[in-house]
Amino acid sequence: MNIREDAAKYYDIQGFPIDDVDFYKSLVPSPSARVLELGCGTGRVLIPLAEVCGFIHGIDSSEAMLEICSTKLESARLPAGRAKVTLGDITNLELEDQFDLIIAPFRVMQTLETDAEVLGMMDVITRCLAPGGSAILNTFFPNRGPDEMRRSWCSQEENLTGESILEDGSRFVRSDRRPRLQSDPLVLFPELIYRTYSPSGDLVDEAILKIAMRCWYPAELEKLVTDNGFKTVAKWGGYHGEPWAQGPELVIQFAR
Question: Within this chain, do residues 16 and 56 fall inside the same structural domain, yes or no?
Answer without folding.
Answer: yes
